[in-house]
Amino acid sequence: MINKNEGLGFIVNTRTIDSNLQKILNFLPKVKPLQESGTGKPTGDDTEKPISGDTEKPIGGDTEKPIGGDTGKPSGVDTGKPTDGDTKIDKQELIGDPNRKSLAYKKYIITTDNYRLHAIFQELKRLPTQSYPQLSAAGIRIFLELSINNYLSAKDLQSNVAQEKNKRFDDVTLTEKLKYLSKLNLDSKQASSTLKRLLNYTNDYSIHTLNKYIHENTTDKINREFLNNFWDILIPLFEVLVDMREEKKES
Fold first, then answer.
1. At residue 22, does pLDDT exceed 90?
2. What pLDDT was estimated at residue 66?
3. Does 48 or 196 have the greater pLDDT score?
4. DSSP H/E element including 245
5. First vs last Cα of the chain: how many Å apart?
6. pTM for this one?
7. What would the pLDDT profile of 32-61 be if each residue is shown by its tens digit?
8. What is the 3-state secondary structure (H, E, C) of 179-242?
9. 71-85, 165-179, 183-197: which range is least confident on average?
10. At what angle do helices 224-241 and 133-154 cross, to 10 degrees?
């Protein structure tokens, strides 16, 4: 309570407040805001500076730099470099080598005006058998059938095949085409022998095996050595069908 001795001249109580409110307010000490005190600077704990671990800089393992094996550089066998002899420069090819890189020998050429047949032959020269055994297996059968079609077309025999099988030529199966060829007097005894071998289903290197590569979900007899050997067995037949031969170097 404020008494009259403190300058008001009356005692402050519930009865005097209503009639003397303004005098009481004027008597109270005035408090200036911080901005009017002349300092203008925040003091003590009221500063806005971050403290201790509250800074924005990452610390310890929280930095954005990758660590250990998480760097952006590929490591180990995950690099983009080709493997298993997939380099552009091959070692000297040896005829009959079951471990050679590709099915088709790079030194060999064929004679055909069929663009697709020629393109597939060039791809089989570059396709690594070890890295792509499934494609290589399918490639053997595709190339064989296209080669047979090329030969029958060149000899104007497609209509004869269709008539004998009583169906359109496009509906004649590869096995039926092979049987038709086996009845012809081919110029090469080796080619005729290859045809008989293909039509013998008890033989691993048969048309049955080739058909499984396309029509069945199998991984049997699909490895580099087997596929390269299969190609070599077919070369005498390819010599007749598409004039496959070793390219002679210019002297």
1. no
2. 45
3. 196
4. strand 245-246
5. 128
6. 0.64
7. 555 554 555 554 454 445 444 454 554 454
8. HHHHCCCCCCHHHHHHHHHHCCCCCCCCHHHHHHHHHCCCCCCCCHHHHHHHHHHHHHHHHHHC
9. 71-85
10. 10
Round the average pLDDT of the chain to a whole number and report it.
Answer: 79
Assess contact for 102 and 57: CB atoms under 8 A: no
Q: Which amino acid is at 97?
A: D
**Torsion sign (Cα): 156, 160, 165, 171:** positive
The strand pairing partners of 109, in sequence order, are 245
C-alpha torsion angle, residues 41, 46, 50, 51 (rounded to 10): 120
Q: What is the 3-state secondary structure (H, E, C) of 114-139?
A: CHHHHHHHHHHHHCECCCCHHHHHHH
More reliable by pLDDT, 87 or 148: 148
Q: Are 129 and 227 in contact (CB under 8 A)?
A: yes
Please name the residue that has the structure tokens 């060149």: 154
Comparing 5 with 80, which gets the higher pLDDT? 5
Element (H, E) at 108: strand 108-109
Q: Are 86 and 226 in contact (CB under 8 A)?
A: no
Is 234 in contact with 207 (CB distance < 8 Å)? Answer: no
CA-to-CA separations, 33 to 37, 39, 40, 107, 225, in angstroms, rounded: 7, 11, 10, 97, 94
How many residues appear in the chain? 251
